[in-house]
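Write out structure tokens for Coenzyme PQQ synthesis protein D (PqqD).
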Amino acid sequence: MPGSGADPMVHPATVGETGDTKDEEPLPRRSVMMAITTAPGVTQRMLANGHLELTCRDTSRHIECEPVAAAMWIALKQHNGDIDRAAEVLSALWETDPEDTRYDLIALAGSLCSLGMAQED
């Protein structure tokens, strides 16, 4: 997924404030929690070639995700849709930058949501 663009609507918002005086410490920056789940009516199946097949019973839409996207989906499922936790695990496993991995997960989630295969909780 490296190099893929994410829908601006699925980018995490960052919240942070700084004080007006030198004596005040800035509040810590934090990400807004984003969790992704399978959309209603969607079934998932791992294929022998490492791809993930998602099918929506309601729309008859069918997509097949390559192995990297399949691994991301599995990590999301293992962490109850928590993008931050999934990114931490995958970046450690793949020895990649956690922010880059998180960005790729957000891009995947945005694509799956726009296709009606996933939804944000």
